[in-house]
Structure prediction request, 278 residues.
Amino acid sequence: MKLGKAIFVLPSMITFSSVLASFYAIILAFDPDNQKSIYLASVLIFYAIIFDGLDGRVARMTKTQSDFGMQLDSLADAISFGIAPAIIVYRWGLEGLGEIGMAITFIYVVAGISRLAKFNVMAINGTANKNHFSGMPIPLGAGLIVGIVMSYYQVKGLTSIPKGENPIAWQIILSVIVLVISYLMVSNIPFKNFKHIKLNKKVVAILLTIIAILIVSLIKGKPAFTLLAFTLVYVVANLLGGLVKFRYRKYHPSVTDLSEEDKKELLEDEYIEDSEKD
Prediction:
């Protein structure tokens, strides 16, 4: 294979690596009464998230972006971060609810696929915002689900059954978590994408701090708990940021009353309706 062709297919191969990890995760999730398999399946989804973060960047670096690659990535995400996490969380904690548990996890799958379709439409129409995602990205939703599973086992051990003395209460809490994640994916709440972040001293200091914490967590043997904590902080920070901007818009209904800088920020964040722009 020539070098040019190899470079062209490289992003697709990374995408297929994500699919392979999630496919194996699904197989492991169906291993009966094996908590270790559920944990390993969750770990594989985290690997799939890493691969998903790499394929797009590799495509941009090698200038091999294509409509085929975008569609392939979207279909892969539907499997890796929609179907696979749903099966894992169902087998782990919601299977005891029977058809209700199936319905809850199906809602997650529908929300995730809808989020991907929305992203594709915005990308094709050129209406996607450069600074944030509209709604929580599906890899983040999958990361929250499997992060909870992995953290549980790292705290309780691989022999622990995630039901405890009160299985109904546990299943209700887990159901609420899955439904909240599903809502966040189909919502219009802005989530920062960090694609255009500039590396200044403050950003570098934050990144070095995060790396240091991750290294310590790896040494202490609790990486999943740390990754889950970072993910939750990111989600909560974006929710609070969205609430602040919503309240700001509520008490500043007239665009003419805003400074040019505030107008630009609100327009970028899609908080000004078309009628207000005119």
Summary: The longest strand covers residues 132-134. Residues 97 and 103 are 10 Å apart (CA to CA). Confidence is low (pLDDT under 50) at residues 252-258, 266-278.
